[in-house]
Phosphate transporter (Gigaspora margarita), 474 residues
Amino acid sequence: MSNREYSSREYPNVIHTDVLVQLDTSRRKALANLDDAKLNWFHFRTCIISGVGFFTSAYDLFVINLVSNILGYAYFSSDSIVPINLDTGIKTSAAIGNIIGQVLFGWMADRYGRKKVYGIELSIMIAATAGTALAANSFSMSMFAGIIFWRIILGIGVGGDYPLSAVITSEFAMKSRRGAMMALVFAMQGFGILTAGLVTMITLKVFESSIKQEVRYLDYVWRIVVGIGMIPATAVLYFRLTIPESPRYTMDVFGNIEKGAKNIELLLSNSKHIKNDKFEAFYLVETPKASWKDFRDYFGKWKNGKILLGTCVSWFAIDVAFYGLSFNQGIIMQNATPNYLSFNDPYDTLYNIAFGNIIVTLLGTIPGYWCSVLLIDKLGRRFIQLMGFAVLTVLYLIIGFSYAIVTTSYQWIFVILFIISMVCFISCISTPTNHVNSPTHCGNKISKIADNFKLQSYQFDFQNFCFYIELKKL
């Protein structure tokens, strides 16, 4: 702690050597206790508060896969497909906002503290979801332009939630379970994707008779499906706004070691509440402000920069495939399992697409997340990630080069391979990469944008899609 200067409120210009040693000892002891702590209620509470944000983010992001199909039947009766340029816009807009949100809220969290900005991003998500659900056509405004605008705003909120929830969970976690706690938070994404499919199925069922009489009733369906995304976000907003500041930030950035140590003591005592009142410490640590020069100096060294570069590239590579598959799963289902879907009846087709999404999520996405929760602290991040890349390379080679066969004569093989690939995505690559460092999130959002534009240029021909994915993986 040689780079820290301790000053007394009473004698601000005097450096006390004995105080320096005492505060340094107190800080190290408090952080050691936090690292070695046993799992208690506060850890679960933190995971729930952060996890609901990921649940909502996944619901809002991936529900567009189902909503896009509904919009096609509701507003484009000629071919029941949203035009390519509009479909690209509504699927890509949130990813554009993600980049802005992650950079903006990541900077704000370091500048003003985690607590001060935690909850703002959720408020943005709530407002943007309401705006999306209420978007409408008029003489001077396009409904699709409104959806795209509000999904950009939604993306800013989602982008802000990613780094904030990850860093707060990490900073409250004990060393032995840090990986599992972060994996648990990210695992809520699987339940968000599942809920999107369930809500769509239920809403379609409620309006079944009306839709079969008049397809325009689908206008109710997509607005309800989108609007329900506000419920979990609103339910957890209060707890986001009242969560205490991270003890690590309190001590190492704000400089209030006494308050940080006190909060850790309350946390370890299994206290359900940590008061947020201002703790008037007698001594505050004066720490130098971080700068872009510090960032460049640190990551300019290859031993540090290679970690950031490696995780960024990993995120970009996997999300080109993962988000391409997830955002366009309905189209994939129609191309890969044509005998299963009814294309003559809008209700049956949309219902079966939602059902197919649920099956893939239950058998692939959710098991993948929970495999990571159970194994990440046992097998390690690097081993799981390398295994995932190897398995996915083999799977996509098989799917890509045997497409004509597996989607005609052996469709069940395609379904099995597709589900296995989703398990590997989540358990072996996506979740472990989250634990290496959080700045890498920005890279994966860029990959989503590139992926969606590329897919649209192929007009969703699935054979070309598989080949495109394989090129990206190799």
